[in-house]
Amino acid sequence: MIARGKAENWRWVSLTIGAGALSLLLACGLCAGALAARRLTRVAAAPRTLSPVFSAQLTRRGAADPVANREPSAATQRACGAAPFSTGCEVAVLTDIHAARVAEGVGPMILPSIFNSLSVPQQLLVLANLERVGRGLVPVSGLSGSLNTIAAVAAAANLDPNPSSFHGNVMAANWAGGYGSPLLVDFMWMYDDGPGSSNIDCKTPTDPGCWGHRQNILYPFNPPVAMGAAELDTATFASSMTELFVGGDWATAAGGADALLSPSWAAISQPVSLLPSAARVGLTGGAGSAQIEVRSGGDPVQFAASITRGVGNWQVSRSTCVATSSSACALTVTANGVGTGTLTLFGPAGQYSIDLTSQAPSQLSIRTPPGGLGRVRWAMVTARLSAGGAGVPGQLVTLWARSGGSATATVRARARTSSTGMVSFRVSPRVTTQYSIAFPGSTTLGASAAGPAVIRVRRR
């Protein structure tokens, strides 16, 4: 069974590249542009070429093709050439990946703490998903035993996985030879795959083969997405890696043809999920700050935090932090004025967005007799603090008093507003006293739209 859906949307195309012919199943109803068979190979200074891919029009942040290639840094080439699984190689490649992602407006790549204990196919799964979830795409659900077998056969032959049939609506495949490090392979597929690279299917900017591996990894598959991956030593390459994606795979359930292996992506990402204490933060008065605590769902998690919307109006106290299940990482967001924004947390399991709102200064209305308070032994002053017509609960409100025409006011009482924004104070009115009620964001005894409500005492 090849596909589920409209049969007229599918056709077979044979493409001859190099020494052999490839048959590619094109989902024409989903693809934009032409397709080319591509190979990615590397032997010393030999040219590199790429593998069968689907072209797609991607509009999500960081998902579109870059304007230029980014070559691996000299540090990466030295470290990964000497020891592809060393800490030095990992640090160097991650530095290159971070720089490339930041240039695309995507947060840094942060590996799960268990990354180095995973097999190469599992690492390829993690890397593909970190690239996908960082751009808001549906993650791959996990590796499939049957798809792993297809990937391994292709890796042994130094070819792209190319199944004759599959249990979904779209498939895409990548192959790389001679790199050794899955991280370096991810960098080459994602960030050094366009015009001007060694991709022989991308000799000019208009060639359809440009950015093919990247388009495979970032294709907007329908869920569930299954994956096969393999890494083998062959007679030609010390490391031959393949990955195969099947979107809309209806056979991933237990007992199905593409049943997922353990650990699934949900299991890998769960211990490194972030648990923010708030999904939204609201401030009143046009300024102020609030604290958000972030914990881990299990393992210690290093994450990055940045204001991704409303950069001019908001600040966050730190850009990176480490959270654990027992120790929260505290972030303080500060509003510099009225407006909205978004605080985004970037972690191994994806990104988390927290909506930020700083409302215009609240309005304070006071219930007193017309003309002010009369001189009596005591009286109750009741006020309501509101924003946009709704009561503002839990806001600290201060009662000030100024006597005898003095320019100096003193605090007489403080209280927090009720759930409906109400607050009351008991006062002993004197003719020479002027009372004011103020709240954060207002100017005590000053004249402004957000200024305090002034209560004068009149003679009876």
The proportion of residues in beta strands is 25-35%
Main β-sheet, in a few words?
5 strands, mixed
* Total beta strands: 24
How far from one another are the termini? Answer: 94 Å
Strand ordering within the main sheet: 8-15-14-10-12
The helix count comes to 7
Structural summary, described in words:
- With 460 residues, this protein is of the alpha+beta class.
- It is built from 7 helices and 24 strands.
- It has helices spanning 74-82, 87-103, 120-133, 145-156, 182-191, 212-217, 265-269, and strands at residues 10-17, 20-27, 142-143, 170-177, 226-232, 240-247, 274-276, 280-283, 288-296, 301-309, 314-316, 320-323, 329-335, 339-347, 350-358, 363-367, 373-374, 379-387, 390-391, 396-403, 410-416, 422-427, 433-438, 453-458.
- The strands form 6 sheets. Strands 8-15-14-10-12 form a 5-stranded mixed beta sheet, with no helix packed on it. A 5-stranded mixed beta sheet has the order 17-24-23-20-21, with no helix packed on it. Strands 3-5-6-4 form a 4-stranded mixed beta sheet, with helices on both faces.
- A hairpin with a 2-residue loop joins strand 14 (339-347) and strand 15 (350-358).
- Helix 1 (74-82) runs antiparallel to helix 2 and helix 2 (87-103) packs parallel to helix 5 (182-191).
- The longest helix is centred in the N-terminal third of the chain and has 17 residues, at 87-103.
- The radius of gyration is 31 Å and the shape is elongated.
- Residues 1-61 and 443-451 have low confidence and may be disordered.
